[in-house]
Amino acid sequence: MLEFVWNEERMMGVNDRDVRGPERKPPPEKGDAAPAVPSASKERGSDAPSLPASLSHEEMLRYSRHLILPEVSLEGQLKLKAARVLLVGAGGLGAPSGLYLAAAGVGRLGIVDFDVVELTNLHRQITFGTSDIGRSKLEAAAERLRDLNPEINILAHETRLTSENALEILAGYDVIVDGTDNFPARYLINDACVLLGKPDVYGSVFRFQGQASVFGFANGPCYRCLYPEPPPPGGAPSCAEAGVLGVLPGIIGSIQVAETIKLILGAGEILAGRLLLVDALKMTFRELRVRKNPACPVCGPGKTIRKLVDYETFCGARGQPVEASTAIPEISPRDLKTRIDAGENIFLLDVREPREYEICHIGGYLIPLAEIPTRVGELNPSRDTVVYCRRGERSAAAVAFLKRAGFSRVRNLRGGLLAWAEDVDPTLPRY
Ligand SMILES: [Zn+2]
Questions:
Q1: Active-site residue flag, 389
Q2: Same domain for 109 and 16?
Q3: Which of 274, 332, 358, 383 is the most buried (most CB within 10 A)?
């Protein structure tokens, strides 16, 4: 569950300069205003369904507020009805996106997901209700969206999108909406979209910050043009570790739907060649120009990627902690409890943030992971030490650091406090 932490310095390096502010759009390129998707194009692809003849009276009523917009009108609503949109991920971004795409009358809405609904999803994934906990997200979302709009077709792809199935699944759609939250999936979707010539409507959220753009539109830049490489280890904590404001994916997901609808209608100015940065804490919307990278390995003239690659490996080399968990000495929650109960003198180190400590703790000495290097002098290298965090990932990074710093008797609490709550103390609050 990774979310993107954008790196402005690196982005500036890639894209030369910041052109923030209104009306600073890139110079128009050939075909920039042209409709991007087959269902909106005069030269509709042979695989694209033809525009329906008209709408039923009930559909006229349902979409009446669209129909009276000159930019939509009956013709635009028919384009929406003929459109085929694939939503990858039914979670944070996918929940609001799915609702608005269905409400807008997108005729064929595909959803790819393989997850189940959890209680921690509900503060932002508004498709789901409390009674859906434990259900397949795909099943729960399809039911909700069919209730919202029974006029549309919803296709459920209950699978993980992979290099093996992506081209086949994406081929059946005109626009791809990226509602995923991890780097392998983002690079996979980008590359598949570039290879197939389909627009990739991108969004990501992190704490109070969000991003949106449209990649691969009208020969514009792609995700790799903006981010040639996944972030370095530790550069992108997940939403589960870092948190996210619940409404933020609603804002970003809605922006993704607005762009998708414009792509289908062939209307307005598409968010291509521009990266929208939303800061919900300051409530600012800024825009950065994104240029096509001539050295881009997937969309540049000297492209080297001509088929999908192994994205887990590509991102794992940079996106995972330096040392694999197998190299980190661990202790299970039950073993730790047994040793504590036996009176062993074990020093517990908690590497979470103070606000997490307030929620729950098991008596550890608190030093947030980021402060370990500067506060390592507070710790005794010869003492039996067990490091813990919420899930065991940050603590594994801390153990790796402490081992390099000469701590020989330091171990990671496997599975963190979540595992402790599961196996030792069910009264410990989980978050
Ligand atoms: Zn590119």
A1: yes
A2: yes
A3: 274
> How far does residue 29's CA lie from ligand 1's centre (Å)?
16
**Has residue 44 got a pLDDT over 70?**
no
Q: Please calculate the CA angle 319-320-321 and round it to the nearest 5 degrees.
A: 130
340 residue type, one letter: I
222 is an active site residue: no
Q: What is the 50 CA–ligand 1 centroid distance (Å)?
A: 31
Phi, psi of 211 (to 5 degrees): -135, 150
Q: How far apart are CA 56 and CA 29, in angstroms?
A: 39
Length of the chain: 431
Domain that holds residue 195: 8-319
Do residues 112 and 89 touch, judged by C-beta distance below 8 A?
Answer: yes
Tell me if 315 is assigned to some domain. yes
How far is the centre of ligand 1, averaged over its atoms, from the C-alpha of 373 (Å)?
37
Ligand 1 geometric centre to CA of 340 (Å): 54
Residue 90 to residue 9: CA distance in whole angstroms: 32
pLDDT tens for residues 295-344?
A: 999 999 999 999 999 998 888 754 444 444 457 899 999 999 999 999 99
